Amino acid sequence: MTETAHYLPAGLPAPLDEERVNAPYWQGLTQGVLRVQRCAACGTWQFGGEWLCHHCHAFDPPWVEVAPRGRIFSWERVWHPVHPALKERGPYLAVLVELPEAGGLRMLGNLLGDAMQEVTIGAEVEGVFEHHAAAEVPYSLLQWRRT
Ligand SMILES: [Zn+2]
Question: What's 136-147 look like in SS3?
């Protein structure tokens, strides 16, 4: 997927991943690819990244590419900004998206479009990659929009 979003303003800190366990995830986002872990030994899906499988404790679960498609599991309309760069940005929508094609993993993002739109639990969404290439530490995020 090559489409990009520009939902969040400049000035936010880049996501921290000091132990680098999620490096394949963040690198994938910069390339327009969503990666999550799937244990090679038992097939368990997991996200965020861990050094071992939660189910069978095998080390280094590999990262696999999955389609950025899911459905809204939960959501919140945020009125109070969580960072000074978002001071003029509210309200905005935060969504917890479930990925049926990846064992039901859930991940957070923003729902693109009108912040006052009606949001429905179970609504289908697709990922949109948001690139912050001009940031002090360049990074990309995965946002969501209704299909
Ligand atoms: Zn496992």
Answer: CCCEEEEEEEEC
